[in-house]
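Researcher: Please translate sequence to structure tokens.
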Amino acid sequence: MSAPIVVHRPSPMGGRQVTVRLHDRDEVLLGTAYSDHDLVVFLEAAGFDDPGRIIDDSKWVEWRGVDAHRWDAG
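Model: Translation complete:
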């Protein structure tokens, strides 16, 4: 099973969409993050405990397209 949280590739304007899979099927857009802080805020609002700890855990978060923690378009 893949990670329930996906940080998608950066958009051409920068920032990365963040989605979460609910009930193993429904994917919900949490928003567009421009920093680790934004990502943590989205995950806190979605009810995740200690999101600062899980953003580097591949069981929880899948970083797509470019390296983790990279937020720029290029």
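Researcher: Any highlights?
Model: Strands lie at 5-7, 16-22, 26-33, 61-63.
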